[in-house]
Amino acid sequence: MTQNEFLIGNRKIGVTHKPFIIAEMSGNHNQSLERALQIVEAAAEAGVDAVKLQTYTAETMTIDVSEGEFFISDENSLWKGQSLYNLYQEAYTPWEWHEPIFNRCKELGLLAFSSPFDASAVDFLERLDVPCYKIASFENIDIPLIRKVASTGKPIIISTGMASISELDEAVRAARDAGCENLILLKCTSTYPASPENTNIATLPHMKELFKCQVGLSDHTMGVGVAVASVVLGASIIEKHFTLSREDGGVDSAFSMEPKEMAQLVVETERAWQSIGAVKYGPTIAEKPSILHRRSLYIVKDLQEGEVLTPENVRAIRPGLGLLPKYLDKVMGKKVKSDTKKGTPVSWELF
Q1: Could you give the 3-state DSSP secondary structure of residue 66?
Q2: For 81-101, what is each residue's pLDDT tens digit?
Q3: For 269, what's the count of Cα atoms within 13 Å in the CB-facing half-sphere?
Q4: Of 98, 213, 236, 279, which one is least surrounded by beta carbons within 10 A?
Q5: Residue limits of the AFP-like domain (predicted)?
Q6: What does the pLDDT look like over 146-185, one tens digit per residue?
Q7: Domain 288-350: which CATH number of 3.90.1210.10, 2.40.50.100, 3.40.50.261, 3.40.50.150
Q8: If residue 172 lies in a helix (H) or strand (E), which one and from where to where?
């Protein structure tokens, strides 16, 4: 593997490897373990590399207050009319579900990990031996949490939503100083859903150079276009929220992908990655047979010895076994040295 590339579990992460696709379950299980396991199965069928959970409780996220800043009154919010506490009670994944969900992932060949939201969640996930950790955008300023995660020595994925360069620098330094050797930053827009116009994936190569690490995309836009484009700009990881059906509802369903869409994402991001290649001019190996079908100069009427070439008996046509069309003016007026049949490619030896 090249510089900055590393392993998450048995998956190689880096631009010389196909994109690592993460299906984020979040609260789309709708408080049903059976549905959570069905989501895992659908993710595996779609071809993703990993399923990610979120590990918290309402108590570790906030306090049970339903007024002021603890109540969501934003008219544009998907969660308007709920308190933060009640929202997290609805969305959280019971901790006793993690092991059966992770086991099902393992059975299906998927990696499984989570975003911890406090130190107790990190301790819990360590007992499940997760292969890496994800720091959510809203936690990228929680330096004690980042240090705690980094102390495990496992790869860390950090979403960058809302973070300034200085805040990201502080997060990256904290992670590295606490022992993180393998770090990836995900460009993220923390609106739900996000618009393509507000995604700014041109940041990806800049972020990669600035922080000397792998980069990727935590994508809340609809469809696959933004994710596909991000691969061309260097994204090694794509994370998308995932549900069985948006019609089923759930806290994140409105901006989550359905199984057919996720399968399309897997295919199209890999195609985008395959297409990047290297700077190259001239025919590729695959193109060489097509050279035969370029235009070239051909005799288009039967000629007798000594007859002069004119526009009526020489033309640039397909296939490409004769002189290049650029020589048309040079051969005009020349005499053939022997009888020449229609369909003979023009060469200097004819004259």
Answers
A1: coil
A2: 999 999 999 999 999 999 999
A3: 34
A4: 279
A5: 296-351
A6: 999 999 999 999 999 999 999 999 999 999 999 999 999 9
A7: 3.90.1210.10
A8: helix 165-177
